[in-house]
Design brief:
Domain Enoyl reductase (ER): 15-320
Distance between the termini: 16 Å
Shape: globular
Helix content: 10-25%
Radius of gyration: 20 Å
CATH superfamily of the largest domain: Medium-chain alcohol dehydrogenases, catalytic domain
Number of domains: 2
CATH topology of the largest domain: Quinone Oxidoreductase, Chain A, domain 1
Mean pLDDT: 94
GO molecular function: oxidoreductase activity
Protein name: GroES-like protein
InterPro entries: ADH-like_C, ADH-like_N, ER, GroES-like_sf, NAD(P)-bd_dom_sf, Zinc_ADH-like
Number of strands: 14
Structural class: alpha/beta
Length: 323
């Protein structure tokens, strides 16, 4: 078994140009609670781009391997690992050394994979056993690699996938091409937010009783929160899960908007390992298939994958195949 791997590292934080490919990165010996994984696929998040650029004052461990989301196969385990065996197919969890039911904070995420701990854009990795869960048996590695951040956050926000729970799904997107894909996946209503600036009011009108939606999953932060408030119904919930943009025209909602709109505004980051395991069981039982972007990237194409995601040319998760 090789003691090294092929990997990408961040030599700085000047964007994708700071990514460097390493042919032989040394792997550490297994500690008592460590698990060695052959990584087959990894997916990208906007967090990875932000880290590469040093946005939001994010700092890194020097020459860290970026990426937090991956799926692969266990090759070896430490002497005190009892939840995994060689041959198990697993997904990574972004945080490390946390209790199974402990919610992640920004500090926990900042100390996690792809920022302070070597991440997933490599062929092999040694991870603490708290950074892994068993992957659903019905998924490919490409599909399972999408679950770590986006999938788990959606599960945490919705307490299950919306279509599987028989909810009416109102989706927003930026193009007619992406709208067609959402329609093919079963979304009941689709709004192009670039063409329909008051999409919150429109979404409210599309709710079955016209009183607004029960749950809004808001990934845009300040750039979308005002419209989310217009969309939500009294006693509904807005789950804040992202920081993708700035408030238009300086229109920054404040905490009193929760009273004005009679809604709950809930911040959430990822989900716990307990939630991850429950989600994976549900995915396998209901044979749910995550959506992967039509263009896969090879390990040598990671820089191109970063640019592809940065330019918003993707639909759903961007995956790199490392095996």
């Amino acid at each position: 078994m090789s003691s090294s791997c092929k990997a990408w590292i961040l030599s700085g934080q000047e964007g994708p140009k700071s990514l460097e490919f390493v042919e032989n990165q040394e792997l550490p010996p297994l500690g008592d609670h460590d698990v060695r994984v052959r990584i087959h696929a990894a997916s990208l998040n906007h967090r990875d781009i932000a880290i590469a650029k040093g946005a939001y004052n994010l700092t890194i461990e020097p020459n860290v391997v970026p990426g937090s989301d991956a799926a692969g196969v266990v090759e070896d385990i430490g002497s005190s690992v009892d939840g995994f065996q060689p041959g198990d197919r697993v997904c990574t969890h972004l945080t490390s050394h946390m209790l199974d039911d402990a919610p992640a904070t920004f500090a926990d995420i900042g100390a996690g994979l792809g920022q302070r701990i070597h991440g997933t854009l490599r062929t092999h990795g040694v991870f603490h056993d708290t950074s892994l869960v068993k992957m659903p048996g019905n998924l490919t590695f490409d599909e399972a690699a999408t679950l770590t951040c986006s999938g788990l956050t959606a599960w945490n926000g919705l307490f299950g996938f919306s279509l599987a729970a028989d909810a009416t799904v109102i989706a927003t997107t930026s193009s007619d091409e992406k709208a067609a894909k959402l329609r093919s996946l079963g979304a009941h209503h689709i709004i192009n937010y670039k063409a329909t600036l008051n999409w919150g009011e429109v979404a409210k009108g599309l709710s079955p009783d016209g009183k607004g939606v029960h749950t809004v999953i808001d990934v845009g932060g300040l750039s979308t929160l005002r419209q989310s408030l217009h969309a939500v119904r009294p006693e509904g919930m807005i789950a804040l899960t992202g920081l993708l943009g700035q408030a238009p025209d300086g229109d920054v909602p404040n905490i009193m908007d929760g009273l004005v709109h009679l809604c709950t505004i809930r911040g959430l980051l990822l989900g716990t390992r307990t939630q991850f395991a429950a989600m994976n069981q549900f995915i396998e039982k209901e044979n749910i298939k995550p959506v992967v972007d039509d263009r896969p990237f090879g390990l040598e194409e990671v820089k191109e994958a970063f640019e592809y995601l940065s330019q918003q040319r993707h639909f759903s998760k961007v995956v790199t195949r490392t095996a």
